[in-house]
Automatic annotation (TrEMBL):
<keyword id="KW-0732">Signal</keyword>
<dbReference type="InterPro" id="IPR007428">
    <property type="entry name" value="MlaA"/>
</dbReference>
<dbReference type="Pfam" id="PF04333">
    <property type="entry name" value="MlaA"/>
</dbReference>
<keyword id="KW-0449">Lipoprotein</keyword>
<dbReference type="GO" id="GO:0120010">
    <property type="term" value="P:intermembrane phospholipid transfer"/>
</dbReference>
<dbReference type="GO" id="GO:0016020">
    <property type="term" value="C:membrane"/>
</dbReference>
<comment type="similarity">
    <text>Belongs to the MlaA family.</text>
</comment>
<protein>
    <submittedName>
        <fullName>Phospholipid-binding lipoprotein MlaA</fullName>
    </submittedName>
</protein>
<feature type="signal peptide">
    <location>
        <begin position="1"/>
        <end position="29"/>
    </location>
</feature>
Amino acid sequence: MLKLGIKWLDAVKAIPLAVAMMGSGSLLAAEGDDPWEGFNRTMFRFNDALDRWALKPVAETYKEYTPEFIQTGVHNAYLNMGDGVNLVNNLLQGKVEDAGSDTSRVLFNSTFGVLGLVDVATPMGLQRHEEDFGQTLAVWGLNSGPYLVLPFFGPSTVRDGVGQIPDIFMQPYPYIDNTAVNATLFVGQVVDTRANLLSKEKLITGDRYVFIRNAYLQNREFLSKDGQVEDDF
């Protein structure tokens, strides 16, 4: 279950896309997608407090005192772990060419890249694909359902929340018997992810809940449709 805890950070990843869409007039209010707003806001405040008092200070310390080359290597290694998830979901979505690219990325980065510490695949033209089982369910025709903020897990929808479960088993965590190693890897991934999002927070404006909700929903639509999102204006 450890892997689920990092998913709530996805909303912050979506902030640059949300700002771009806002500039083009495409960031729409999503009240119709949020019938459980009262519950969601309560969970949002809980998650936000956890981040403010625990995750963010640790991430800031890591960012300030860890040499940049170490941060880059750690980040690359965790991305390499995630490429396995991308690979399986591309296969499930019938994207054979993308799955082949993902397979090559994992092989090259895990070997020549020393367990993923060095990203040798991207300079070779093997681009990374961001896929998960929630996107796979969307490709299979399942509607997203209402927006839902889960404690610890964070922003999601009913479909994407269910979709997180299979993704757990596409990661190394369930197959590592050593609890200390498992916990260390997970904590490291959370800190690495949070540290790489620090600069993006400055882009948030207005009601933080509404901004992050809309950013998440827009980003999920963008990913689920492989960027083929129609402009309503």
